[in-house]
């Protein structure tokens, strides 16, 4: 048996040597190497490469990244330009057995949680910050991550010059700006930012995007709607391709959509809700510049309007029955988007105002589909922070008075009638913060101020401390403060979850145009920020990386169909079962003014889990997961893999 096994293993190698000798020059004579590797993934034969790079050298700080790149390049190229041929069908050994046992010494692993999952690995790491780019040129008022790993962000074309010239040159008349600025304005007001390399490509915008809305279409394009002045009714489409620019129609929408909210329905169409003096909503197709009008009245927005509004950028979410949740100021309803009928009035959230300009935060909490009937699940929303209903009246103009922001949160189950808001307090007050769903299912609260409201110079005391919120813990145990930043991110700041699990933070401009120093702008309090940071949450602690799963993308399913099973090939050096693993699908949102539109995280059902392959079940319908692109993470007891882009339809 032993000799037979050796023959079986060597046959492909011998065949390849003969084939290579007959059909190609001798690689050894050309100074190249022939490499032979047999392992749990099968047999790989490589030709070429200098041999100077060793992806298995764990002393290399980029060890994991290089190893993942080598795995995912699969049977095309290896490191150093090595051409590789892989024979995955010649696998041997027990795939369910790890190559080495994961070390857990020093961690309190505890007992299994109530949902049958083992507890997360523990760490004392509270996160870390780094500057990714000292000058991206445009302050990020709005941001959307696209499936090509480019983050698109923009500010406004009507408030003076930015800090980067358009390339290729594109100029328009100068509107506003710094003393001494002379027209025309040849700077860019939108960029495409490579989240891996920090490289910047400028984009051209015609119609003003100030305080607009947006989202990612089912095909991965950015669909941007509304804005100010000539952009009130504009629609813009940016496809994720190398040389693409925005396509724009300034008269596409039925109403002025300034400070509106945009979310996707199960069909892939978008619903645009509200805007200044627009107490209605409309439905638009995902990737068309011209279409028939479908507009419906929305009395809630009129009922929720205060003297200083507080009903702008409403919080809107698609629910599992195809209806939508709409929250404005302190009121909320369940709405049938196709008829305009209010199906249910929800209880008022006690306290002050939660929407712009009081500007609290909100997110739909992770939806657990790893249950017996995933089409009948409870969905819960959280709303935090904000300020008093008259706060903007005092903060808008000098002499200004800044009310302390609210620190309370409310949670409400949206799928059950008769439920009431569950209240709890954040560690500190916060207005204009961002609320992001992390790959693990925890929530990150970041950016903002501790007093005042949205608006130019309308807040003070930056809140520099991110907060981790764990929704599955008991009330009173859910908040944890993390490592603070030293850069204020207040009005017009943004953030985004990246595929590697880091958080990109950009923007902040409390001024009416770009201001960088007090010498030129003595009235300036906080400078315009064009630098870009990345924040590493606790799950990226160095000591936790031994537990990190690695997705082998070329062997994994990326095109998903509703309700179907699919496979994710992984590498994980640990003995695991279903109580160790979660597979989470994340919809990257369009974030602006403290609200992340279209954000949702789905915990998928599991059919099979080993340390080599995970079989999961796609969401059952577009009501739970609207069609389009998602980041898929395999999470091992609180330690996520790098996200893999998947597409569902």
UniProtKB/TrEMBL annotation:
<feature type="region of interest" description="Disordered">
    <location>
        <begin position="46"/>
        <end position="81"/>
    </location>
</feature>
<dbReference type="InterPro" id="IPR015202">
    <property type="entry name" value="GO-like_E_set"/>
</dbReference>
<dbReference type="InterPro" id="IPR014756">
    <property type="entry name" value="Ig_E-set"/>
</dbReference>
<dbReference type="InterPro" id="IPR011043">
    <property type="entry name" value="Gal_Oxase/kelch_b-propeller"/>
</dbReference>
<feature type="signal peptide">
    <location>
        <begin position="1"/>
        <end position="20"/>
    </location>
</feature>
<protein>
    <submittedName>
        <fullName>Glyoxal oxidase-related protein</fullName>
    </submittedName>
</protein>
<feature type="region of interest" description="Disordered">
    <location>
        <begin position="93"/>
        <end position="120"/>
    </location>
</feature>
<feature type="domain" description="Glyoxal oxidase N-terminal">
    <location>
        <begin position="141"/>
        <end position="539"/>
    </location>
</feature>
<feature type="domain" description="Galactose oxidase-like Early set">
    <location>
        <begin position="549"/>
        <end position="648"/>
    </location>
</feature>
<dbReference type="Pfam" id="PF07250">
    <property type="entry name" value="Glyoxal_oxid_N"/>
</dbReference>
<dbReference type="InterPro" id="IPR037293">
    <property type="entry name" value="Gal_Oxidase_central_sf"/>
</dbReference>
<keyword id="KW-0732">Signal</keyword>
<feature type="compositionally biased region" description="Basic and acidic residues">
    <location>
        <begin position="94"/>
        <end position="104"/>
    </location>
</feature>
<feature type="compositionally biased region" description="Basic and acidic residues">
    <location>
        <begin position="62"/>
        <end position="74"/>
    </location>
</feature>
<feature type="compositionally biased region" description="Polar residues">
    <location>
        <begin position="106"/>
        <end position="116"/>
    </location>
</feature>
<dbReference type="Pfam" id="PF09118">
    <property type="entry name" value="GO-like_E_set"/>
</dbReference>
<dbReference type="InterPro" id="IPR009880">
    <property type="entry name" value="Glyoxal_oxidase_N"/>
</dbReference>
<dbReference type="InterPro" id="IPR013783">
    <property type="entry name" value="Ig-like_fold"/>
</dbReference>
